[in-house]
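Report of the visiting student (M.T.), summer placement. My assignment was to run the structure pipeline on a short list of targets and document each run. The first record concerns MIF4G domain-containing protein.
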Amino acid sequence: MKHLSCFTVGTLLSIWQTLEIAIIYSTQQEKQIQLLRNSILKEKITNKNPPPEHPTTVEIIPENEYIKQVAEILNGLNPSTFVKLLPKIKALNLNTEERLSEVSKLLYEKAVEDPNFSLIYAKTCQCLSLKKQSVSNPTDASNFRAMLLARCLNEFDKASTG
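After the run finished, the structure tokens were exported:
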């Protein structure tokens, strides 16, 4: 009690009120954190069995329509829409070499045309990097990453020699 003697009653009351407010505030934060945890848990439980990456029934879309859909997704891609469009990007059915090649070409061109969003395009490439064509005898360049790397190398060689 010796240390408290230098404080006036008003000062002690003010300190007490400040502590009381801090306790109420931290309790509210704990409630918000708990609500957030509950919503994350609920989301994990509801998404326990996510749809397979390669659905058993494949919707047949003409190649030009497919490329048009991919281009629309990429045109809408920016830092604020990336999280919203990520499921659409992951759901891309890159089951043929032609589709892998076209999508890698589109992404490469978008990244070169708009360097301000190159990080977003790099994240998109990372999401697609392990996508493979579904054939019995895949070639060395049968996944998205290999095709994109081949495209970059080809463009680099063109720039170096031309």
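The radius of gyration is 27 Å. The domain at 63-161 is CATH 1.25.40.180 (Serine Threonine Protein Phosphatase 5, Tetratricopeptide repeat). I thank the supervising group for their guidance throughout the placement.
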